[in-house]
Specification:
mainly alpha
Length: about 170
């Protein structure tokens, strides 16, 4: 009977050990699964953040390309005395449309510089509409505002992302 009782106790201890070990294994598997889900969720969030930043930078690049081209055409139309009123108006409309794109995707510094350039161009355009000639100081003012805009755009392009940095 002692051997049978010893075997029974040994079996019970083995069963208890298996149950405890199984419980720990199940808990470890659950924790591992939760960590895997958490890591996958974090990876998706990180990837979405990176793609969003990439999209914003591309949208800004496209908007800046368009407005820089439109600015050149508009300022040329304003400054050159041989430009017709229709050509100046077409260039103004193209510039206005491009500026609106910058308003949508540009940071505050670029939007402010675009607004100042736009205001200066509109003032010179009004002078032309009144039949007055563009004076040299007006052309210089346009050029200064244009340089300030280009400087603001360049600052955005020169931005160096770090691990946690935000796009300006």
């Amino acid at each position: 009977m002692d051997q049978g009782l010893a075997a029974l106790f040994a079996g019970l201890v083995a069963l208890l050990g298996a149950l405890i070990g199984g419980g720990f294994s199940a808990r470890a598997a659950r924790i591992g699964g939760e960590k895997t889900v958490q890591a996958a969720r974090q990876q998706v969030e990180d990837q979405a953040r990176v793609e969003s930043k990439r999209w914003l930078l591309q949208a800004r690049h496209d908007a800046y390309q368009v407005i820089l081209s439109a600015t050149d055409a508009y300022t040329d139309a304003l400054i050159q005395p041989t430009t017709t009123a229709e050509a100046a108006e077409a260039a103004r409309q193209r510039f206005r449309s491009a500026r609106l794109r910058v308003d949508v995707v540009g940071p505050a510094t670029v939007r402010t510089a675009a607004d100042e350039l736009s205001l200066t161009c509109v003032q010179v355009h009004r002078v032309l509409e009144e039949g007055e000639p563009v004076e040299s100081w007006m052309a210089q003012e346009i050029e200064e505002r244009h340089r300030a805009f280009v400087k603001a755009v360049t600052a955005v392009y020169a931005w160096e992302p770090d691990a946690m940095g935000e796009i300006p």
